[in-house]
Amino acid sequence: MSTSLIPFLEMNGSANEAIDLYVKALDAKVVYTLRFGDMPENPESPMPPEKKDWINYAVLRIGESELQLSDHFTGGSYQEGTQVTIVVQTDDKNKATQYFETLKEGGQVNEPLQASFFSPAYGNVTDKFGVTFRILTKGKP
User: Most buried of 21, 41, 89, 115 (most Cβ within 10 A)?
Assistant: First the structure.
């Protein structure tokens, strides 16, 4: 089993610009980029054309570390100062469930832990101390 903690930055439409800056300033290498326009279309909630180039998910490699980021797009309002979360990434679905269930005690579930098109188990929870974690199980659902 493998588990890692990864900083995750949530931007407000400026993720492309942030990626350019981190590549220049930190010698970051872009490992993966998924734009909102690349995702499966949701007929109930069509994508505004001006947001199709926004970043849904990106991974940068900086030295031996990883940085993940996205543009805030769905649900709730964007609040500056809350854009840093921690990704707990594991290859064990049972461990992901354990992490999620324990972190939600006294906290708040932002997105329930469930299968998605990119993960067998993904969820978002804010613990009782106000720290937000994205629990991500590597692999296909």
Answer: 89
The answer to whether residues 135 and 113 touch, using CB atoms and an 8 Å cutoff, is yes
- Rounded Cα distance between 124 and 122, Å, is 7
Residue found by looking up tokens 């690349």 in the block: 38
H helices within the chain, ranges in order?
A: 15-26, 93-104
| pTM of the model as a whole | 0.73
Strands of 84-90's sheet in order across:
29-35, 55-62, 65-71, 3-11, 84-90, 132-137, 119-126, 108-116
Please tell me the predicted confidence (pLDDT) of residue 15.
93
DSSP state, 82?
A: -
